[in-house]
Design goal:
This protein is an alpha+beta fold and 135 residues long. The protein is 33% helix and 29% strand. It is built from three helices and five strands.
């Protein structure tokens, strides 16, 4: 496992995604798979940046874990407000766009674009774990 810790703000996004991309590349993920990993990671990170610390300063850690699957697991750790994004209901994707509620699509994408996703709270830490199989 390797880890990168930065301030939880939008200015950190590029460096964190570059870190994740490099790890996925080492494992031989295709460019399209890396694009999917980056999109999912960006959604998770921006949620922490915007909602996790309720306007206060904080840190975010990104852990990259490799398993024998072969797979890459990206974990986003923060000490912000306790929140399980997987507890949200799926958004309405059937009704007319003009009638849909705004928001909620990020977590939907995270669920749909990962091979496995899990959330846990350890002490004062939120940990969102997103696993991508290298097929």
């Amino acid at each position: 496992m390797i880890m990168k810790k930065l301030p939880a703000r939008v200015e950190s996004l590029h460096e964190l995604l570059t870190f994740i991309r490099a790890e996925a590349k080492k494992l031989g993920f295709s460019e399209s798979a890396i694009g999917r990993i980056e999109l999912v990671a960006e959604e998770a990170l921006v949620n922490v940046f915007v909602h996790g610390y309720a306007g206060e300063q904080g840190q975010v850690e990104v852990h990259c874990l490799v398993s024998d699957d072969p797979a890459l697991t990206v974990e986003v750790h923060d000490t912000g407000v306790a929140f399980n994004p997987l507890s949200l209901a799926d958004p309405d994707v059937q009704s007319d766009l003009t009638k849909r509620k705004i928001g909620g699509m990020g977590v939907f994408f995270i669920r749909k674009m990962t091979d496995r996703v899990a959330y846990r709270r350890e002490g004062n830490r939120n940990i969102l774990s997103m696993t991508f199989l290298n097929r």
